[in-house]
């Protein structure tokens, strides 16, 4: 059932459009940040916090007039503390604001549906596997190792390989969801093994792991 406050928030969002949407979203996110910090504050959010959040989003807008309207005309927010340097507000109905924002497609989500998948997505992106493969492929094209190459390979092996191996092992537990990453990571690990062995044995030539390349369908478009 839609509450009266939800209807009022919806009216504000419709009447004032994008301005109301970004200001309410900024206020809500500032409130969440303060709650997460564990610090005691005199309200849910403050004017400075909203201005900071809007600036982070690249929005140049002074919300003071709209905040007055939301408080005076609609009662969505109330002033909880005011001084020369600060002004704090509280939402009169936090859940109503949250629901209205969600309905507009910009609302917060309390819980990440699958934290493990979410974390794995972040880790895979942070590894920059394509960048590492591009460098390794350039070494294979030259067909020889310089001292700079050898140092770079050692750095990857001791800095990145343990992380890649851990993330790869986690990814393997999710079937084909991360198939592309698993193929690329496997190719990279095998390639680094080939390069490290060649560096140690000082052979005259070495070859890129062609079987793995074929399976991975990794080509020059990755460069």
Question: Which percent band covers the strand fraction?
Answer: 5-15%
Quick one: biggest sheet?
3 strands, antiparallel
Count of runs of 4 or more consecutive helical residues: 10
Indicate the low-confidence ranges by residue numbers.
211-223
Query: What's the overall geometry?
Result: elongated
Query: Helix and strand string, N-terminal first?
Result: HEHHEEHHHHHHH
Give the end-to-end Cα distance, rounded to a whole number of Å: 55 Å
Q: How helix-rich are the residues, as a percent range?
A: 55-70%
Strand order of the largest sheet: 1-3-2
Structural class by secondary-structure content: mainly alpha
Beta-strand segment tally: 3
Q: Number of folding domains?
A: 2
Average pLDDT score: 84
Rg from Cα: 27 Å
Structure keywords:
223 residues; mainly alpha; Arc Repressor Mutant, subunit A
Describe this structure in words.
The chain contains ten helices and three strands; from the N terminus they run αβααββααααααα. The protein has 223 residues and is mainly alpha-helical. The chain has two domains: 4-103, Arc Repressor Mutant, subunit A (Orthogonal Bundle), CATH 1.10.10; 115-222. The chain has a three-stranded antiparallel β-sheet with strand order 1-3-2. A hairpin with a 4-residue loop joins strand 2 (77-82) and strand 3. Helix 1 (4-37) packs across helix 4 (94-103) and helix 8 (161-172) runs antiparallel to helix 9 (179-201). The longest helix is centred in the N-terminal third of the chain and has 34 residues, at 4-37. The chain is elongated and about 75 Å long. It starts with a helix and ends in a 7-residue tail after the last helix.
